[in-house]
Design a protein that fits this description.
The complex is a heterotrimer of chains A (301), B (269) and C (419). Chain A is mostly helical and 301 residues long. Chain A has 13 helices and 2 strands, in the order αββαααααααααααα. Chain A has one domain: Orthogonal Bundle (MetI-like fold). Chain A has helices at 20-53, 71-76, 82-113, 118-130, 133-144, 149-156, 170-194, 198-208, 211-222, 224-239, 243-248, 256-266, 270-300; strands spanning 56-57, 63-64. Chain A has a two-stranded antiparallel ribbon. In chain A, strand 1 and strand 2 form a beta hairpin. By secondary structure, chain B is mainly α. Chain B has a domain at 63-217: MetI-like fold, CATH 1.10.3720. In chain B, helix 3 packs antiparallel against helix 8 (172-201) and helix 4 crosses helix 6 (131-155). The two termini of chain B are 34 Å apart. Classes of the chains: A mainly alpha (301), B mainly alpha (269), C alpha/beta (419).
Chain lengths: 301, 269, 419
């Protein structure tokens, strides 16, 4: 897909007829509408979250900045919220690792052995992504329920007499999240692997006298940028994933995203919710900055 | 160069594809199930499909979703294409910062975007959710995807092509219109399709910006799942899968996924 | 033309001075007194000549105006806050003519199958019956213009009456138009959420207990304490409803489910935290989760249990001995109702014993109608779980209104529990 397959921009030829200042003006003019939109409807609201997080709620239920302070952050960092934070991080980490472990071999296969059908195979990987995330998560509910497909098969095969509780558990949440994020993982991995110079791999095979040696010492290090990009593209959205833990999880799998949603929809304590939201953003920010640097190289270059 | 792949690797890959498609197959199969509540196969029926068309709430939600999607696609495609072009073809100060700005929405958790827009509209404008509000939110998160897609294609385009057109006497705008635009058109189309898919499917950001009368299809499906699942949801899902697959197939045939490399044909000396 | 658009009319040689609006109202008053429809009026005019018919009307215009509830399209009914104006004429209060339409806004599958048709037949009023999928949609809709969002009648939970009436969304009821109020059981004559039923009429009521699958959970369960049994770990569902869950804790500790005392709330929270490891889901679909086998036992509303036994007949339900919540919803008329008479008739109609019994028999929720009890399906009315005897009812508690600051106390602890 065009998003990740791109040649590096060729150098500008000499004798370019466009004057630099006109070019800069044109560039700014092109870019201005989009930037303005994002500034108003993306950056500014994010800034508002931060501002609101320093406020409080008056008796009438409105947010007020009369006494700005860190009380919302004190609320947000209560030890009672720790399990939810732990869940969010745990699920995101496991999902990322699993996705990488599963996605890498597949990306490798498509790149190396896909031949003429590469594009088709990639489209097939992306197809589930294009159909609704919500619907696919729901499909897993059907499969994993106590009286669902999987349990019915297991019981019919005589492997178990009682249904195994699969839904509403850590297992179902991680499974659903991994499933949902696999395309996000496979694509950057594929791009990185596809760029590999085959000759290097062959040379490695000669040097290390084994396929696995070549893999460990040549392929893996050279595709590391892709691995990093894939991890970040998976980990960061996974941290904030609301839908999967909500539908496939239960009372014991609450995540921070769910808590934020509960606060904003049933309570009036928006400062508290904003503080939690900001904390979630802060946790992802470090990873985001890292992701941006890698993404700019891998996706935009 | 292409040696024989190990059987394990091939098997693993095949298994993965099965894993990716199994839930969707299950979904489709059970849309024909007679049982109302349980997901044990009881019998075959086509009844759930005609019932969909009698469901006023569902049809209303679909209408809202489509309206929002159209607005989102138009808005984000225009803004995103301009962004992508500007970044790829033209050099200006702040290009780096702009690139960062584009990528930020792609890595911001949806729940954060949802609540930020909720607070923005509610606190500053006392708005309680509406179709327009949803559309604005959708444009906001779709711009990035269009911009990235167009930028990639535009950057891969040989700049000498445009220069050649200029040399041949075309104006700057004419060169743009007759050379650049057609060349990036597939990327614009792909970006637009991507924006459509994202908008059509969005739940979290939409839920925070929806009001009475602006329920979208994902919100409707989500409530139905929470409050009592029936195979009717499977039926809607199957239709959505079919429509999206068809759209993707058409796009593929039209060449939307073809490589971005376009080279100037070298003349013989 | 003179002041107020007063016009001189010449009717059959006789002159009269009428004001346009008064003329219409006078015609209506005239019709009502004789219990004619407008069509009959025209027929008589044709038969007897206009003068004979119109003269009394012209004369009536001279008399003090009677503010009539049944208003023609020219007069916006929303401007009226009451129906029988206190400045009514000394003439006997007439039976008002209902409008020809009615807009009702209700849950899906929440009424007897023949109720709408029966009403339409009896009164000749066309009913437009819209449904909402959930409470937030309903409340948002009726609050959207502050007057009911275009509807005449809707069915809010009793906990909403306080805020809706003080926000002016509800029409004060003219109880003279709802004689069937007399059918209410004494317990419903003066409910805490709406003294004297000034703004609402009770619709269905229910208890919140718990239901279980006896195949998986043998034995006779009678208390809330049973829900803390460690053997239920991973097989229990509690309702995703803050007030209801806290009420369970309150009942176990002998506290009021409406407490606002922070220390008491902390005690309740501590008790609920002990239960939390046993909970598999905070459910919004108690019916589905139990009948599909996802859980063995669930916190549930009595009406939902009635639906569970349609799918799984041996499902059990109990109103726990420590006490339980009695909830109810209501029928109200919105302040912006364009068909207020018809709306009152609708409320009255649903309080008719047979209609009320039909509703209950279809949905499984008990109504507040004492006279209807004889007509309700014996399996419902004799079931102490759906229709508890007086001594059990005495231990039922309504969830009362909480001021926002008090509600925040609950919300904070609820968030803590959920995390």
């Amino acid at each position: 897909m065009d998003v990740v397959r791109s040649a590096s921009a060729p150098a500008r030829a000499e004798g370019s007829v466009r004057a630099p200042w006109a070019e800069r003006l044109a560039g700014a003019a092109f870019v201005l509408p989009g930037v303005a939109w994002l500034a108003i409807f993306f950056l500014f609201p994010l800034a508002i979250i931060v501002v609101v997080s320093f406020g409080s709620v008056d008796p009438a239920g409105h947010v007020t900045l009369a006494q700005p302070g860190l009380q919302s952050y004190a609320q947000a960092t209560r030890p009672e919220y720790l399990p939810a934070f732990a869940n969010s991080i745990r699920y995101a980490l496991i999902t990322t690792v699993l996705s990488l472990a599963i996605g890498y071999p597949v990306a490798y296969w498509i790149s190396r052995y896909g031949g003429e059908r590469k594009t088709l195979l990639l489209i097939l990987v992306m197809l589930p992504f294009w159909t609704s995330y919500l619907i696919r998560t729901y499909a897993w509910m059907i499969i994993l329920r106590d009286n669902g497909v999987l349990n019915s098969v297991l019981m019919a095969a005589g492997l178990t007499s009682d249904p195994i509780p699969l839904l509403n558990t850590d297992f179902s949440v991680v499974l659903g999240m991994t499933y949902g994020f696999l395309p996000f993982t496979i694509l950057p991995l594929y791009v990185s692997i596809d760029r590999l110079d085959r000759h290097l791999v062959e040379a490695g095979r000669d040097l290390y006298a084994s396929g696995s040696g070549a893999f460990l010492h040549v392929t893996l290090p050279l595709t590391m940028p892709g691995i990093v990009a894939a991890s970040l593209l998976t980990f960061i959205p996974a941290l904030g994933d609301y839908v999967t833990p909500d539908l496939l999880g239960g009372a014991q799998t609450t995540t921070i995203a769910k808590i934020i949603q509960v606060i904003f929809t049933s309570g009036r304590d928006w400062p508290d919710g904003s503080a939690l939201g900001f904390l979630l953003m802060a946790i992802t920010m470090a990873g985001t900055l890292l992701a941006l640097r890698t993404l700019r190289r891998e996706v935009l270059a | 160069m292409t040696g024989r792949p190990s059987r394990w690797l091939t098997g693993f890959t095949a298994l993965l594809y099965a894993f990716l498609f199994a839930p969707i197959v299950v979904l489709i199969v059970f849309s024909f199930n007679t049982s109302r509540r349980n997901f044990v196969w009881l019998g075959f029926t086509l009844d759930w499909y005609p019932k969909l068309f009698e469901n006023q709430q569902l049809l209303g939600a679909l209408a809202v979703t489509l309206q929002v999607a159209v607005i989102a696609v138009v808005g984000s495609t225009i803004l995103g294409t301009l962004l992508g072009l500007g970044l790829a073809r033209l050099r200006f100060r702040g290009a780096g910062a702009t690139e960062t700005l584009i990528l930020l929405p792609m890595v911001t958790p949806e729940i954060i975007m949802g609540i930020s827009l909720l607070i923005f509209f509610a606190q500053l404008f006392s708005l309680n959710g509406s179709l327009g509000q949803i559309a604005i939110a959708h444009i906001t998160f779709c711009i990035s995807y269009v911009a990235v897609t167009v930028r990639a294609r535009a950057a891969g385009m040989d700049p000498r092509l445009e220069e050649a057109a200029r040399d041949l006497g075309a104006s700057a705008f004419g060169a743009f219109r007759h050379v650049t635009l057609p060349l990036i058109a597939p990327a614009v189309a792909a970006g637009a399709m991507l924006a459509f898919a994202l908008s059509f499917d969005d739940l979290v950001v939409t839920a925070f910006n929806a009001g009475v009368g602006s329920t979208t299809l994902p919100i409707y499906i989500y409530s139905s799942i929470k409050f009592g699942v029936t195979p009717a949801i499977n039926a809607i899902s199957t239709i959505i899968v079919a429509v999206v697959s068809l759209a993707l197939f058409v796009a593929w045939r039209l060449g939307a996924f073809r490589s971005a490399k376009v080279r100037l044909v070298e003349e013989d000396a | 033309m003179s002041r107020d658009g007063e016009r001189r009319v010449e009717v059959g040689g006789q002159r009269a001075r009428v004001r346009p609006i008064d003329f219409e109202t006078a015609v209506d008053a005239y019709l009502v007194q004789r219990r004619w429809t407008r069509r009959e009026l025209l027929e008589r005019m044709a038969a007897l000549g206009a003068v004979a018919v119109l003269t009394p009307i012209a004369a009536a215009c001279q008399a003090a105006a009677t503010v009539l509830p049944s208003s023609p399209p020219t007069q916006p009914p929303g401007s009226q806050t009451g129906l029988a104006s206190p400045t009514a004429t000394p003439a006997p209060t007439p039976q008002p003519t209902p409008e020809s339409e009615l807009y009702v806004y209700n849950w899906d599958e929440y009424i007897g199958p023949d109720t709408i048709a029966g009403f339409q037949q009896q009164y000749g009023i066309q009913v437009t019956y819209d449904k909402f999928p959930d409470e937030p949609t309903q409340i948002a809709k009726i609050q959207s213009d502050g007057k009911g969002g275009g509807y005449d009648v809707t069915y809010p939970a009793s906990t909403w009456i306080h805020s809706l009436s003080s926000d002016g969304v509800l029409l004060k009821l003219d109880q003279s138009l709802i004689p069937n109020l007399a059918n209410l059981a004494p317990a419903w004559m003066n409910p805490g959420y709406d003294p004297g039923n000034g703004f609402s009429v009770p619709n269905y009521w229910w208890t919140t207990g718990y239901a279980w699958n006896p195949d998986k959970v043998p034995g006779d369960l009678t208390d809330w304490a049973n829900l803390w049994d460690p053997s239920l770990r991973g097989h229990l569902a509690m309702l995703d409803d803050m007030r209801e869950v806290f009420a369970v804790g309150a009942f176990r500790l002998g506290l009021s489910p409406n407490t606002t005392n922070p220390a008491e709330l902390d005690q309740i929270l501590a008790l609920l935290e002990q239960q939390k490891p046993l909970v598999r889901i905070w459910t919004e679909d108690d019916i589905g989760d139990l009948t599909s086998g996802q859980v063995w036992i669930t916190h549930a509303w009595s009406g939902d249990w009635f639906q569970m036994i349609q799918d799984k007949p041996n499902t059990k339900y109990v109103i726990p001995s420590e006490g339980a919540v009695r909830g109810n919803d209501t029928m109200v008329i919105l302040s912006g109702a364009k068909h207020p008479i018809a709306a009152h008739l609708w409320l009255n109609y649903n309080l008719d014993p047979q209609v009320s019994a039909n509703n209950t028999n279809a949905i499984g929720y008990m109504g507040p109608n004492l006279a209807a009890q004889a007509l309700i399906d014996p399996t419902i009315v004799n079931d102490p779980r759906l229709n508890p005897p007086a001594d059990v009812q005495a231990k039922l508690v309504e969830l009362g209104y909480l001021a926002p600051a008090d509600l925040d106390q609950y919300t904070q602890r609820w968030n803590t529990l959920r995390a």
